[in-house]
Amino acid sequence: MSSQAWLNEPVARAAAWSLATILFYLLAKRIYRFHPRWWLMPLAVAPALLGTLAFVLHEPYRDYIRGTGWLVAMLGPATVAFAVPIYEQRVLIRRYWAFLLAGMVMGSLTAMASSWALASVLGIDGELRLSLLPRSISTPFAMEVSGEIGGVPELTAVFVVLTGIIGAALGDILLARLPLRSKMARGALFGVGAHGAGTARANQIGREEGAIAGLVMVLVGLMNVAIAPLFMYLMNW
Amino acid sequence: MFIGRFVILLRRRIQRSLVLQIALVGAFWLAGEGIVRAVGLPLPGAIIGMALTLAALCWGGLDIGTVKRGADWFMAEMLLFFIPAVLAVLDHHEFLGPLGVKLFAVIFVSTAAVMYVTALTVDLCLRWRERHELASLVE
């Protein structure tokens, strides 16, 4: 009993879980470097290992996130960081902004319409169906839109995360099969389809892809927040 | 005169240090969060921080060399910051079972559709532009 007493100290517990998260992340990254398969990607392997550990130690998520929430908060400065590649690609972006806008509009419409249609076909309705709609955009935007249109923001946050994992893997598979000529199309695919997780993946593929994905991720989030009231108006009409 | 030299020295110091660059990116983030809180904007602070950084790079004389390495570090390790959020899935036992399979199907198919449509739209626009430019060259 006494050997586990230190684990009851909130600070020690937070430090231990933070350290475990970072170590499993580094391990998962290493595994992926030597075996680059889509099902071995760090975003799937590290949480699986951590989840197993949390299960074995009977650690509820509430306590885990209390200690590691600061890591999630670092998504803030990581978003700020995308100002740099956007600045570097400003000539390209200024030249082709209309095409990117077209991609974002079409992508957002597809996200909403296909989620709605598929959920309806599979018998998912009510709040759950509405919570699925804004899942392609990054969490703060998605939760805002979800609340606006009558979904459950907390559920949307979970769907956003799942979209990120699935999208990062799907993106690789689609890139290998679609005859896409431009880096811009490849960046937009990740930014509109899988928000931050997709952007992180696009950044590994290339600097230009990462810059486009980062820009598009932010703009598509803003765009969705802006049109959510309009969407509600049409729904009620 | 004195201030000018101080700025040059500071810039050189930051250009050499990854830690200071990470701190600078963090400072822009905190500034964004501060503005959002002070003004009560309905936007994430990180977006305002990003806009501030972009504005400083374009018009504020912020040297790209003083933030580039710090920004690269944040982007390279970004997946780490998602991992604790992914574990939130463990809290939703109701998603284990048939409902979970359905939700997975919706997310999988819809995300594939979004990616397909987005990438094809951008690519088709580019091809159309290429053809257009080629045609105008021939004329």
Tell me the helix content of chain A.
Answer: over 70%
Strand content of chain A: under 5%
| Continuous helix count of chain B | 6
Taken in chain order, the helices and strands of chain B follow as HHHHHH
Rg of chain B (CA only):
23 Å
Major sheet summary line of chain B? none
Provide the gyration radius of chain A in Å: 19 Å
Unreliable segments of chain A (pLDDT under 50, ≥5 consecutive)?
none
Percentage beta strand of chain B: under 5%
What is the H-and-E element order of chain A? HHHHHHHHHHH
Characterize the overall form of chain A.
globular
Overall mean pLDDT score of chain B? 90
Please write out the topology.
The complex is a heterodimer of chains A (237) and B (139).
Chain A: H1 10-34, H2 42-56, H3 61-73, H4 75-81, H5 83-88, H6 90-121, H7 126-132, H8 139-149, H9 153-177, H10 183-205, H11 207-236
Chain B: H1 2-16, H2 18-39, H3 45-58, H4 68-76, H5 78-86, H6 98-138
Helix pairs in contact in B: 1-2, 2-3, 2-4
Q: How does this structure look, described?
A:
Chain A has 237 residues and is mainly alpha-helical. Chain A has 2 domains: 2-73, no CATH class; 80-236, no CATH class. Helices cover 82% and strands 0% of the residues of chain A. Chain A contains 11 helices and no strands. Chain A has helices at residues 10-34, 42-56, 61-73, 75-81, 83-88, 90-121, 126-132, 139-149, 153-177, 183-205, 207-236. Helix content of chain B is 79%, strand content 0%. Chain B has 139 residues and is an all-alpha fold. In chain B, helix 1 packs across helix 2 (18-39) and helix 2 (18-39) packs across helix 4. The chains are: A mainly alpha (237), B mainly alpha (139). The interface between A and B is large, with 102 and 73 residues.
